[in-house]
Task: structure prediction
Amino acid sequence: MSTQTALPLLSGPELGERLRALAGADAVRPAAIGDAIGGVSAQWVVEPHSDRDAASLLRFATDAGLSVIPRGGGSKLSWGNPPQRADMLLCTLGLHRIVEHTWADMTVTVEAGCTIAELQRALAKHRQRLAVDPLWPERATVGGILSTNDTGALRLSYGGLRDLVIGMTLVLPDGTIAKSGGKVVKNVAGYDLPKLATGALGTLGVITQAIFRVHPLPAGTQTLQLQPAGLPSMQRTILDLLNSDLPCAQMQACLASGVAPALYLGLEGTEAGLAAQEKAIRERAQPMPLSFATPEVWRARQELWTPPEEGVYAAVAKLSVLPSKLMEVAAALDRLAQARRAQWRAVLQATGIGWMRVEAAEPASAVELFREMRTAIESGGGSLTIAPLPPRSAAAELVNGGATSLSAENVIDFWGGAGDALPLMAAVKRQFDPQRTLNPGRFVGGI
Amino acid sequence: MTQQPSNLSATSAAAGVSPGVLAELRSITGERGLLTAPVDLRTYECDGLTNFRVMPQAVVLAESAAQVQAVVRLCHRERIPFVARGAGTGLSGGALPVANGIVISLTRMNHILEVDLENARMVVEPGVINADVTARIAAAGFFYAPDPSSQSVCTVGGNVAENSGGLHCLKYGFTTTHVVGLEVILPDGQLVHLGGSALDSPGYDLLGVFVGSEGTLGIATKITLRIVKRAQCVQTLLAAFNSTNDAGAAVSAIIAAGLYPAAMEMMDRLAIEASEAAVHANYPPCGGLLLVEMDGATAEVEANVEQVEALCRSHGAWEIRRAKTAAERTLIWKGRKAAFAAMGRISPDYIVQDGVIPRTRLPEIMDEIATLSDESGLRVANVFHAGDGNLHPLVLYDARVPGQEAAAERLASRILELCIEKGGSITGEHGVGEEKKLMMSKMFAEPDLETMQRVRCAFDPLHLSNPTKVFPRPRLCGEKGGKYVPHPLETAGVAERF
Result:
C-alpha cells in the first residue's frame, strides 16, 4: 500500500475520516483537553475492538508518519517524558475480556484493557489472584501495569510482573501481531519478549493480551507493626528479618519528616501458621514493641499521590537501591529536605524499591532535591525515576504547564541514567519501531 | 550414528580459520589457551546431545573477560562465527559448534567474585559450577535456587543461556528469577551491563531477554545472582499410586486446595525400574510415584503436609513415606535426579524430550504416549515435573537395530507435536538449540519468529553469536518487511533519504 496523499501529514477531519474507515465510526472521536499527555495535546482518540483493528490503525499511523500514544486507564499516562508529538491516542479499553481462566493450571489469559480490579474479582471466584498490588487497581489496566512495571509490596514474595507474565500478544507499529511465551509457566522456547515489553512504556508495541501465572489466595493474612527506635535500628531490623527464615510476604517502612518511622510486616498462611509466625517475629524483634495493624497500611504507597493543598507543590519519585542502603536513602532525603524547607514522606519496601513524596513551596526546591537524590542513588548503582501525580485537572495541566508534576515542566529528566546499554536499547527500538510511531521521545535517553 | 545438522552459518564464507587468525588468537589467549589439534577439538564437537557433531576450527579456553572481548572483537572483524560453551551438558545442542567457527569455552573463568549475604547477592564468573554456588553459602543458611539435575557439573553461564530450571522451580522459579545483573560481551566486542544489583533499572529489560537466549545474543562474563535463605522447615514425602493418572489426580487436588509445594515430581513404572537398578533409592514398585516437597515456616509446613498426605490417600495412594532425616530426603531425590542416567541400565540408547503441557492435560498425553509406544514397539519411560506440566519422556531404543533410531526420533517428535496441540511448549528447560529449531515453526507463527529475530538483529546483526541455533530460518538484519514506503516528508519534497 504505497499511494500517499498529497498532504505530507494527515491531520484534522481528513485524518478522522481515515481512522473511522479503519476502526469503525463508534471507535473514533476527537481528543479533548482531558486527553492530553504530559501537557501535550492529541488530535484523535481511537478505541479498537480487536487486535486486528489495532494492527490496522498502527500500520496506518506508521505509513502516514503519525505518532501513537497507547492508553489504558490513563492513571499513569503522564509517566515518562512528554511525547514529542501525539496524533493518535490508542485506547485499549475496548479490549477488556478475560479470555480464559484455566484455574486448574493456575494461569489466566486476559486482554490488555481489563482493569486489575476486574481481573482480581474474576480470579477470586476460584480463590486465586494475580499476586501483584499495583496503584489504583479500579482504574489501572493489565496493559498499563505491564507497560509501567508497577508493583507493590507483594513483590517481596511473589516476584515482579516480569516473573508473573508468561505470554503476550504485541501489536507492532508496522501492523505485525506477534505472540510470544505461551500458556504454560515453564517455557524456554524462543526469546522472552513478554519481559522485554514489560516496563517498555509502550514504545516497542501495543500489548493487547497477556497470559499470567496466578497463585492461590492465602488462607489468612495478618499485618504487624514494629516501632524501631530510629533509622539505624530500622535498617538492622529489615535486614535481620529478610535474612531470617521467617517468611514475610510483604515488608515496608513508612517514614515522614518529623514522624517516628514504622515497619509493617504482612504475613500469609493458615491460622496456626500465622500465630506461630507472629510469635517468632515478636521473639526475634524483642524488645522492640510489636502490635497488630490493619491491612489499610498497604495503601500507604498509593496515598503518596494524594493531590496537595493549594499553593503547595508535590512530586513523587520511585527509587531502587540495595536493601542495605534503604535507611541511608531516608537519612539523605531528610537532610536535603530540611535544607530546602521541604516536607517529605516515603514508603520503602524491603526489596529495595521505594517511593518518596516531596512537598515544597515551589517546584524548583523539589526538582533540586530529586536531582541531588538521584546523583547520590545512581553513584551507588541504584536508580531514581519520577512518578508524576495524576493532573489535578486537565485544564490546569495545560495552562500551568503541569503545575503539579515536574516532568510536564521538563525540568528534570524522567528516567535518569540508563547505563552503557543505552545504544543497544536504541537498536532494539529501531528494530521494532523504526519510524518512532509509538510514544516518541518518552523513554530513557529520549528513545 | 551422527547427524549433519543444518548448520552452515549464513555469514561464514571462508572454509576455515586462517593460520594468521589462529596466530592472532594465540597471541590473545597464550599457548595454553587455544586448542587446534583435531584430537583436542574432538572433545568439543558435541554437547550432551551426542547425535549431532561438528568439529570447530579452534577452541579458546578463556580466562578473563578481557580475553573474551579481544577474541570476540577478532571474530567480528574476520566474520568468524563463535559458540560459547560451559560444561557442555546441554541436551539440545546449544553448544554444538558451528561449521567454520570457533568455540569459546568459559570453564576456566570459574571464580566467585563477591558474596553479599546482607543483600542476598553474589557475583560469579560464568564458569562457576551451579552446585558450587550453593556450597559457598550453605553454611550461612542460603542456597542458589535453580537446581538442574546436572548441577554438580553444569555452569552458571550455561544456566543463564538456557534459563535452566530444576526440581524446585515450581516454587522458586528459574534462572531468570535469580539473575539480577550481567556483564556481557556483545557480538561486536562491546562490553555492556544489563540490569544491575538493584531492581528495575530504567530502560528495556535486556537482561530478561538475554537469559534463555541460548548464547545467540553475546557472552556473559560476569553474573550477579540472587540467593535465597533456606526455609525454616522442609518436609519431603513420596506416595505410591497404581497409575500416573491417579497420581496426576492427586496433584490436581493438591493445587486446587491452594497448597503450594516447593517441588512435585512424578515417575512411571519404567522410570522407577531404571532408577532402582542404578541408585537403589528403594522406591516402592508402582505405576505412578509422586515425590512432594513442602517448605516454609514450621507450623505452616506441618499443617500443609498433613493435608497433602490426606489428599494422596483419598486419591488412591497405597503407600506414603515421609523423610525423617536429611539423608532420607537426599535419597528420595537421588532416585529422581539419577533417572536419565539410569536409563542406561535398561536400554542401550534413549532420546529424552522436554515438552510442557498444561498440567490438567497430563492424563491425556500419558495415554497418547502409551499408545504411540505400543504402536512403535518402543518403550517410553516417563519422568516429569508434575507441578508445572514439564514432561521428560525417555524414548528407549537400540541403535544397533536397523530403523529403531529413526523410529525413536519420530516418536519423540510426535510427542512434542502433541504438546503443542495441547497448548504447551516444545521445551520447558532444555532449550531449542539445534535439536528443536524446526519445531519452532510449529509452535510459533512466522510473524512471532520474525519479531523475536528483531531482537537478535539489534544484538547481532552479523549473525556471529551461535548463529544457527533456535530459529529455523535466519532473518536478514536491516531488511524491513514489505515494500519500501517513502516517508511523507520525502513525498512533500521537504527531506531527502540518503
Chain B touches chain A through 102 residues (CB under 8 Å). Chain B is about 35% helix and 20% strand. The mean pLDDT of chain B is 91.
